[in-house]
Amino acid sequence: MKTLYFLFFFALCIRDTTGQTNEMKLWYKKPAANWHEALPVGNGRIGAMVFGNPQHDTIQINEESLWAGRPYNDNNPSSLSSLARIQELLLENKNEEAYQLATKNMVAVPKTVRSYQTFMDLTIDYADGTVKDYRRELNLITGIAKTTFTLNGVKITQRVFASISADLLVIVIQSQTPGTLECSFQLSRTQDATVSVKNNVILLNGQINDRENDRQGPGGMNMKFAGAATVKNVGGKLSAIGNTIHVAGASEVILYINARTTYDPDKLNFNNSRDVQKICLQAFQKPLAINDILKNHQTVHSSKMQRVSFHVDAIDYSNVPTDERLAAVKKGTIDQGLIELYFQYGRYLLLGSSQKPGELPANLQGIWCKDFDAPWQSDLHTNINLQMNYWLADVTAIPETMQPLIHFMERIRKNGEVTASSMYGAKGWTMHHTTSAFGQTALHDAIEYGTYPLAGAWMCLHLWEHYQFTQNKKFLSETAYPLMKGSADFISDFLITDKSGFLVTAPSYSPENSFIHPKTGKSTQITYASTMDIQIITELFKAVIAASKVLDTDKHMADRLQETLAKLPPVRINNYGGIQEWIEDYQEAEPGHRHISHLFGLHPGTQINEQTPALFEAAKKTLAHRLANGGGHTGWSRAWIINFYARLKEGDKALEHIHALLAKSTLKNLFDDHPPFQIDGNFGGTAGIAEMLLQSHLKFVELLPALPAAWKNGEVKGLRARGGFSVDMKWREGHLESATFTSLAGKPLEIFYKGRTEKVQLKTGEKFLFQIKNEK
Question: Among residues 118, 284, 321, which one has the least CA distance to residue 202?
Fold first, then answer.
């Protein structure tokens, strides 16, 4: 009777509880054939990919801090002594000589950032037999991956979720017929680990044996880790056979899974004196009540997901499996509901890979990684990718996802100060194009990829954005402003005067793009004062000046930055009428390059807008030129293009590229396909949809700035605007009907819609209805 009561209670707990739940699901008729079809769950620290095989299931598990490598002083000791000569050569247009000298003296020693790694696999073997009525799904609102099937005539339900409150991965397996459930469980990792079983706990212990640490010798500096699964059966019998736990005759089995490393996020290092096995197992010593854990998980997760809803009138394809819907889109079907699902999926993925209990920001794959040596090391890439990961955080009302990024930036600043001083002889702090859990800040990989000391400045703009959305003055004073000021200090020292009297950056490049040198005819990348550099500096200095006014501090510094802004080279228009990418109007080596860095001032920057009409039109020509030459061929690049067209107020073109993102750069589980998988395209796509509906980067909140004709009727609720506002909107026949603003910070509000402007002053919590009457 207790078992039947529990099953009934459990069913009540997991039933659909919202109007959106049925729509906001990815679902499939078949198990995942590979990792890129599996379904992700995560709580910010621990993540898993669920394959949903009804007889031999795999759940691949990650923990955010399991990284190969170690911290070290990666700054090239020859950099500072060579810097002046490199700068001279660049100003003299001797780029090749500058490149050779910089390669020898500026690239990090050693020059490799090591990889984020898979942690372990859990395998679940069910009894042999006939499988029918199969379905697997991921409910974005409840945060539960569910697999259902009948095995030998008995219905089995398997649910997987990553609990925030318990900070554990939880798996619940139920048989509809009590006493018939039979299954076995194993933990495994193909290298660097051993597995044992004691009572009802499977324990995995390991230490990374990484090639970067081989020179340390036996017992050298390698991160330790431990994973554990405790198995609890309701009814039946549990037994251990070797490294396997077997359950037979049960009505239900619950697994609680933990994974821990010796990593210390406050020190960006690991401490192998910690008993990581003990830490891992401590989570199982507290009371684990599945009803409470599940209820809390759904309450917390759904409350975040339900802050924002988005819907347009369209044919409802929700009864069609997600992979079939995607396949139809690839053949030309218009599926607006899949766009809505994709929008919410981006929010779901960021919550899963960047919130407490996690401490590290979302990496190139969020938190989900199947490899020991991942593509691009699954690192924290800072020449757009890490930044793109967080474009959606504030505007789609999940600001808590910013906390791991903020925490990381606070810690990395110390390393960045060493790099600023030792490489450039500058005050403040800096970082280059790639880093990891160990906080590397030097120039890595090669000059053609790593010459990017303004990455820190771009990252600081996320802090300023977060303040603009939240209006949290304490955060600005204690966290954001010191980091912003430190970055501005570095840039002020880094700038030099060129032959025309402008203050310029040197060395510099336009991320990963090349130009043909007019004298040598060779493809090169290193130069001085790339357009993106100037745009980032302009954006940061204006933000620091504005922040100093808010905080009523550092007026002399603000005045100095204002003077510096007047001495920067202007953003120029090139020979075909687009934005010039480099200090000279060089011939492009790759006119269709994936990076479109010289449009930073359009998005995410604010300098190119309708109030700068010449540059605004030039930005349109830049995009047309890139696309005509094959641009947008990677997932994240296509996502950036969506945001560009949103800022250009061209909704139909933005929608065209949403369709292209789905058709050309999306995997069956809706992960972004760079290729291979890289999660920034998911995040950038979600941000782009929000940007089409609401913009607030200037001094007003603009409603439906890039609404495509195909989104004729619709509504969105809960988007956030800078200044501290939550916004709900409805539109009909392509025209706004009403918008309701809720003030979250008691700041003045200026609304703009199709030439109409309205200004109001609201108190915190006060609402304002902006209504359009009889618009045709």
Answer: 284
Q: Helix 290-305 to helix 336-353 angle, to the nearest 10 degrees?
A: 120
Half-sphere exposure of 372 (CA within 13 A, CB side): 12
Cβ atoms within 10 A of the Cβ of 755, count?
5
**Neighbouring residues of 496: CB distance < 8 A, sequence distance ≥ 6:** 87, 91, 503, 504, 506
What is the distance between the alpha carbons of residues 172 and 14, in angstroms, rounded to a whole number? 11
Identify which of 630, 665, 749 has the alpha carbon closest to the alpha carbon of residue 700: 749
**What pTM does this model have?**
0.96
Q: What is the pLDDT of residues 134-179, one digit of tens each?
A: 999 999 999 999 999 999 999 999 999 999 999 999 999 999 999 9
For residue 220, what pLDDT is reported?
56
CB atoms within 10 A of CB 367: 28
Under 8 Å between Cβ of 712 and 733: yes
Polymer length in residues for the chain: 776
Q: Give CA–CA dist 740/725, Å, rounded.
A: 10
Q: Are strands 714-721 and 748-753 parallel, antiparallel or unpaired?
A: unpaired
Q: Which long-range contacts (CB under 8 A, 24 or more apart) does 266-275 make?
A: 266/411, 267/411, 268/71, 268/411, 268/412, 268/415, 268/437, 268/438, 268/439, 269/70, 269/71, 269/438, 270/70, 270/223, 270/224, 272/207, 272/221, 272/222, 272/223, 272/224, 274/224
d(CA 260, CA 269): 14
Query: How many CA atoms are closer than 13 Å to the CA of 212, on its beta-carbon side?
Result: 19
CA pseudo-torsion sign 189, 190, 194, 197: positive
d(CA 718, CA 726): 5
**What is the phi-psi region of residue 475: left when phi exceeds 0, alpha when psi lies from -120 to 50, beta otherwise?**
alpha
Helix-helix angle 651-665:635-647, to 10 degrees: 170
Half-sphere exposure at residue 376, Cβ-oriented, CA atoms within 13 angstroms = 20
**Please, which residues bridge with residue 204 across strands?**
195, 227
Tokens of 586: 């060089």
pLDDT digit string, tens, across residues 459-497: 999 999 999 999 999 999 999 999 999 999 999 999 999
Q: For tokens 């507290």, name the residue.
A: 286
Tokens 């905080």 sit at which residue? 551
